[in-house]
Amino acid sequence: MWHRGEVVEGKTAFSFLAAYRGFALVVAVALLFSTGYFQILSWPGWILVGIASAYTLFKLVCPFSRYRRNCLTYSTFGFDLALCLALPMFTGGLHSPFLLYLLSPLLTAALLFPKKLTFSIAALPFLTVIISQRLI
Questions:
Q1: pLDDT tens track for 16-47
Q2: Contact 64/15 with Cβ under 8 angstroms?
Q3: Does the N-terminal or the C-terminal CB of the chain have fewer CB atoms within 10 Å?
Q4: 3 in helix, strand or coil?
């Protein structure tokens, strides 16, 4: 059973996570436009940036809940992980402005899952960046 202090602490942690996600997206979009990188970004990249922006706005309004662990929470986390893993592939690999945004699902996993699963999930962003560098 959840105590009031744990629920408030959990809500605060997920609110900070949503704020981090918003900050990382603002930094990435600012880097896209300030460095001139937006001129060489392909259409799939722009579509992915639009989806990431819409998803981030959704997560700012409705952040994850630690005490509501249901199918919707886990499927939303799966979409979050897939989206964040796809961003470096389409936006430049190691030179992607979305590398800071790539840490969002890692922080979410740290709040939702046990240590062993979190460490397994932590390997995925690094493998994605390495694979995207090999493809570029």
A1: 888 899 999 999 888 888 877 666 767 777 88
A2: no
A3: N
A4: coil
Answer whether 72's CB lies under 8 Å from 113's CB: no
* Contact yes or no for 9/96 (Cβ under 8 A): no
pLDDT tens string 38-75: 667 677 778 888 888 898 888 888 776 655 677 888 88
Residues in Cβ contact with 98 at an 8 Å cutoff, skipping those fewer than 6 apart: 24, 28, 52, 84, 87, 88, 91
Cα distance from N-terminal residue to C-terminal residue, the chain: 49
Helices (H), the chain: 4-34, 43-61, 71-90, 104-112, 115-135
The amino acid at 5: G
